[in-house]
């Protein structure tokens, strides 16, 4: 009998094209040597050109999947991604508060808002629930700059702005904020900021001009959750996750007629 790998649960939406969402999460987890499990929140009809349809699952189906995993198998880290609606954000926040808060299981919240193609993955009416219900459950919240603007109103144009963004996100209660500056217009580096309000870690990686970056955010959050499930500290989990995603972006490949995925298995 071989040793059991660490257990990681993703609560997220499906991407039929296999580049983002649940599919990206499970591929990342496999690549990083943890056992991935999934609670599906929504199904998207999606390819390299964009999201062509999205259907959220009933609240009961989300609850039942979560309970099935947690009550029998257990989890050592949870990652949340696309939650689609206010009802599902509240449902997932309740489930997380009821289990992970009591047991100290780390939670990585990727507050997914809009896809790279501009397709909405979260109803505007759900933003308040993300701020007041979901973010407080997070060990690490991983917004990109668009999500920062949506959630806090802070428009980031430089590294000082990233610091302000982190403060605004931390005010909603996550223990750490990882602000992803990949969308900053300037600079030859992809710069992210991880902070808990006292410790500050700037992560810099060369920016690749590869446009096949579909699913980057999903891979990063899943990699952080995988590291935390292995027992790494938050800064070390984020450092290793950034290195993994930088390699996955460098190896991203063309698929279909639009934007291809990062290579989770690089
Ligand atoms: N589809 C799903 C189900 C997602 O969860 C996400 C991002 O979290 C996306 C699509 C968007 O991916 P990207 O913006 O990297 O294209």
From TrEMBL:
It holds the Pfam family Phos_pyr_kin. It comes from the Bacteria. Pathway: Cofactor biosynthesis; thiamine diphosphate biosynthesis; 4-amino-2-methyl-5-diphosphomethylpyrimidine from 5-amino-1-(5-phospho-D-ribosyl)imidazole: step 3/3. Residues 15-263 form the Pyridoxamine kinase/Phosphomethylpyrimidine kinase domain. Catalyzes the phosphorylation of hydroxymethylpyrimidine phosphate (HMP-P) to HMP-PP, and of HMP to HMP-P. It catalyses: 4-amino-5-hydroxymethyl-2-methylpyrimidine + ATP = 4-amino-2-methyl-5-(phosphooxymethyl)pyrimidine + ADP + H(+); 4-amino-2-methyl-5-(phosphooxymethyl)pyrimidine + ATP = 4-amino-2-methyl-5-(diphosphooxymethyl)pyrimidine + ADP. This is Bifunctional hydroxymethylpyrimidine kinase/phosphomethylpyrimidine kinase. Keywords: Kinase, Thiamine biosynthesis, Transferase. Its EC number is 2.7.1.49, 2.7.4.7. GO terms for molecular function: hydroxymethylpyrimidine kinase activity; phosphomethylpyrimidine kinase activity.
């Amino acid at each position: 009998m071989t040793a059991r790998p660490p257990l990681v649960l993703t609560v997220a939406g499906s991407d039929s094209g296999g580049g983002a969402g649940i599919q990206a999460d499970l591929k990342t987890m496999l690549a990083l040597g943890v056992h991935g499990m999934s609670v599906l929140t929504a199904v998207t009809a999606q390819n390299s050109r964009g999201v062509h349809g999205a259907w959220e699952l009933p609240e009961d189906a989300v609850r039942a999947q979560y309970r099935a995993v947690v009550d029998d198998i257990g989890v050592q880290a949870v990652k949340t991604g696309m939650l689609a609606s206010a009802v599902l954000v509240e449902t997932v926040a309740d489930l997380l508060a009821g289990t992970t808060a009591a047991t100290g299981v780390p939670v990585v919240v990727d507050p997914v808002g809009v896809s790279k193609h501009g397709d909405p993955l979260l109803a505007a009416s759900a933003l308040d629930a993300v701020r007041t219900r979901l973010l407080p459950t997070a060990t690490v919240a991983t917004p990109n700059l668009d999500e920062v603007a949506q959630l806090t109103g802070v428009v980031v144009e430089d590294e000082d702005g990233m610091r302000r963004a982190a403060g605004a996100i931390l005010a909603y209660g996550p223990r750490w904020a990882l602000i992803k500056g990949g969308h900053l217009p300037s600079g030859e580096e992809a710069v992210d900021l991880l902070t808990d309000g006292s410790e500050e870690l700037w992560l810099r990686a060369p920016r690749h001009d590869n446009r096949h970056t579909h699913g980057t955010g999903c891979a990063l959050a899943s990699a952080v959750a995988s590291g935390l499930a292995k027992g790494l500290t938050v800064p070390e989990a984020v450092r290793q996750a950034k290195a993994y995603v930088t390699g996955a972006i460098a190896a991203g490949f063309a698929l279909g007629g639009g934007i291809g995925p990062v290579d989770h298995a690089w």
